[in-house]
Design goal:
It comes from uncultured Dysgonomonas sp. This is DUF7674 domain-containing protein. The chain is an all-alpha fold. The chain has one domain. The chain is about 75% helix and about 0% strand. The chain has 7 helices and no strands. Helix 5 crosses helix 7.
Length: about 120
């Protein structure tokens, strides 16, 4: 079953084309969580490379996540916080945090920082 998260990711994040079909073949309720975690890992890989194109791509992905977060219900927001933000925050250091926060829209920075502090 395709959900709002999966439909939005398929429509707006080109990087998903390589792997999303394999992930959504199962009808598991956990599929959304796996997709969000995978998107975070894609962002982490791009942040590690750090080219301007990669950073722009991460920023575009985060904009899509922001649309989902701001337009989503509590379940969607929790899924994004628990999977996308938590996975992304695993690479943060004091040196990288300021740079990475600039990739987030203002309305998501607070939520991302909250996730970092909780973990």
């Amino acid at each position: 079953m395709k959900t709002k998260i999966i439909n939005t990711v398929q429509e707006w994040i080109p990087e998903q084309e390589v792997w999303i079909d394999d992930l959504i073949k199962s009808d598991s309720e956990m599929t959304e969580y796996v997709v969000l975690r995978k998107i975070a890992k894609v962002c982490i890989d791009k942040l590690k490379v750090g080219t301007p194109d990669d950073l722009a791509s991460v920023q575009e992905i985060i904009k899509v996540i922001a649309l989902l977060y701001n337009g989503g219900n509590q379940y969607t927001r929790n899924a994004i916080e628990n999977e996308f933000f938590t996975e992304l925050s695993s690479i943060e250091s004091p040196a990288s945090l300021k740079e990475h926060l600039h990739l987030f829209p203002m309305e998501l920075r607070k939520e991302y920082l909250k996730t970092i502090l909780e973990n």
